[in-house]
Sequence to fold (229 residues):
Amino acid sequence: QQQVKQSPQSLIVQKGGISIINCAYENTAFDYFPWYQQFPGKGPALLIAIRPDVSEKKEGRFTISFNKSAKQFSLHIMDSQPGDSATYFCAASNSGGYQKVTFGTGTKLQVIP
Amino acid sequence: EAGVVQSPRYKIIEKKQPVAFWCNPISGHNTLYWYLQNLGQGPELLIRYENEEAVDDSQLPKDRFSAERLKGVDSTLKIQPAELGDSAVYLCASSRSGRSSYNEQFFGPGTRLTVL
Fold:
């Protein structure tokens, strides 16, 4: 059962544009939503994360928007750069007790000059 | 601070052969995870250790997969015998322990397994 749905599967954006990746979850027990960035040949690395008590979190060019009622969250990459080209995974977890992370299927982002 | 170390980085074997992957977590991280990542998919948890105890192995195919973390530090994941469908990237991750908040998982580079 896929508990975190991610779209699109792939995304091509011009340099300087905005990249938007969307995710939806089903399990209301999730209360922590990290995004991971993975470059080819590397393991995923935590990029930014949000808890559902806030609707938005911004770190530099990366922003998470969170809609608790809709059970949806999204990653916005402002001023996208070729160095942002990677695969992005949204994920969901509970923050207490046994923290099992459920990952989305990933979005391959290509930023073209 | 050294990251999570995995070896080998690549492994090609014939089907029905055994294979083993090794992971050394970040120093001080008591929790260790093994994930399976199929091409174009997100990581899926195989097993999680708290020190030397496997606290979640519900997704580990126990007929052919086994894992150990004997001294609560390094870990080995084994497949015997390997099948064509086992071709994937095997990721190891580690994190600090604690139930008060989310503990960030740090991933190694993975071992890419190809079964011919």
Notes: The mean pLDDT of chain B is 93. Chain B has no helices and eleven strands. Chain B touches chain A at residues 4, 40-45, 48, 55-56, 91, 93, 99-110 (CB under 8 Å). The longest strand of chain B covers residues 88-95.
